[in-house]
């Protein structure tokens, strides 16, 4: 092979590999005919068609005809809504907490994404096309989260990560970080005072780090500079990125006082991209949340499972919404993620929200909080083709999701659901695990060992 | 002018005690007993179909009359035109009242130390004033089974109505000894025992159960022959199951365990109820053949195996009912027992049908508890446990307008609602003035 031929061959190989990587993220085309289309942002249309081409919503209207080669699905009598977005999930994560320090901003959930987890398929069966795979709540500043698109069946973790979503990071206030670090490890924070101190110390250190780099970069450009670069620190760089508005904070929080504290810290450091998670007492500071933040992502009705959620109300979402805060309903649970449409509907029992307000809480509102509202979260021409077809209105308790599409590709069809979903069989464990209580409240997963140590110490001292 | 000011001041000072009284403003509404006439509703009786333009007279805690032309001049009349009435819902398995805050051990009273404690009485630990009771009953759940948890025989469950200030006022007339049937399954992903060890552990637990049963049998025989025995409260309680005085409620979930439990009870002359029964759909015909009633749930739950269809738990109740099993539902919850109607809706949607799902939260549990002449339907003479709603209470958009328990009109308020009233339009709002 001469040199020229070899170049051509290599170029061909390269283009093949490029094609191959494009082909990895499949995009589909489909025409969904004659459904009741709940756009969420632009009203509801009966007997209307939705055309998705190459993964993008091309046209919403009546009497559309399918371009050649595009499958048509009859949705007569059915409801068509945007793919549901869960702003708080731990589905498809192998581990959840790096509980070793009050600040672990450097760790990334995208390093532990497991595309084979059955939870992804089950979420699709509940109409959920996007989930925010979050770090746990053991740390004041936790790791960086991953926004996932539920492309079930992909075997490369990168293919289920929504690559065009902005960076987000987990923060946590209150009982969990004080329990893990204060009670478990005997280090700050032991109280809500300590939580604030960790945040302020962390951001001040990040400011110094930022300045050191700015000084260095300035000095470096001088002629004959002998400036030495500061030591790179991923943790501080991430905090600096937060200060620069490059990362959205998603903060696990329950009590009104701690929510108010973080708003004040954010104001002092000029941080604008802030979403509160859980936010059980958000209703008490709803005007403050509405004024300063990107809103709150809450449970529909969880309360009383720990002391800091004892003074909760199921009317939380309605109060936040009516005070003008962007509000979403999330799952934080492999079980709840399967019926977020039902969780959103509870805002009608508790607060009488309209259909559109309730549906926004699991579509466009979480999209706004994840910074992806220009791409998904409503049925609009030009947005990504993430769609669910429901039998029955999605806010009815009797609704059943029928088909779920991501980028125009059908990943769930109730008629094609297999009785045996097994992906692998263990030769050494013939007795299959039978999970009787949900193993799924994972915000504090992987932190148990800290308490074993603490209780052992406690007993030794007795 | 000066004089006027003085008078005014004196007047103000005289008013001060009244002003301080104003600190306790707003009358507290208590559950209210009496005679009520619910007029002109659509009544879903459960046992006798749907009656339109029908009225219900509540008197002495009972449904005194049911019909279209009831006159009761001394009753408080509540217009129910355009509204629906259903019997109060019964949750067949909860820890409501036995726990206040799950992560605070001081407030958790559903579990005792020890593997064999059938004499532990859930009714004793029911807190009539738990914050969760008013939160629950405004959903239309009027009656719950308080179930102790823990070892092989963790205690005795008790049925309560969600009104009253002492456990005895709440007690609804049913108790059962609880048994957690030895589990032959792997308990979760973290359970790293070998298949052999799992089998050994299971056999050991079954052996213990058999030995306890034999002891209870001897105890019962000796007592019935007039023997005087040493104080042995655990076995004395189990002996009540042997004698048929109390039913045995067996918590069993894995398919193979359900089969084993059917075999285990076959030669025992005990009244048996299965609870949990998460994999009941795999062996539904066998449960039906054994004629054992089932209290299953939660319905909104994950499948028990990774390989199962995603809707295995949603459809379980319906599959068992269709096979001929008598099915009641439970939430197995404490603070969110209020979601029972939504669990029932999911069961209805995934194969059970609305009518059967309604039975599963009303007349079926009443029959399983032997209380079918008191609870579970709208019939003359039954306890006045009633829900008045704008529409089918299984729908989230339905608003519950009135709830009656034991004939008491229940205030439709609780802390969740009071917080809504205070914070919807907070004062001061964003500015401090």
From TrEMBL, chain B:
<dbReference type="InterPro" id="IPR032466">
    <property type="entry name" value="Metal_Hydrolase"/>
</dbReference>
<dbReference type="Pfam" id="PF01979">
    <property type="entry name" value="Amidohydro_1"/>
</dbReference>
<protein>
    <submittedName>
        <fullName>Amidohydrolase family protein</fullName>
    </submittedName>
</protein>
<dbReference type="InterPro" id="IPR051781">
    <property type="entry name" value="Metallo-dep_Hydrolase"/>
</dbReference>
<keyword id="KW-0732">Signal</keyword>
<feature type="domain" description="Amidohydrolase-related">
    <location>
        <begin position="308"/>
        <end position="407"/>
    </location>
</feature>
<feature type="signal peptide">
    <location>
        <begin position="1"/>
        <end position="22"/>
    </location>
</feature>
<dbReference type="InterPro" id="IPR011059">
    <property type="entry name" value="Metal-dep_hydrolase_composite"/>
</dbReference>
<dbReference type="InterPro" id="IPR006680">
    <property type="entry name" value="Amidohydro-rel"/>
</dbReference>
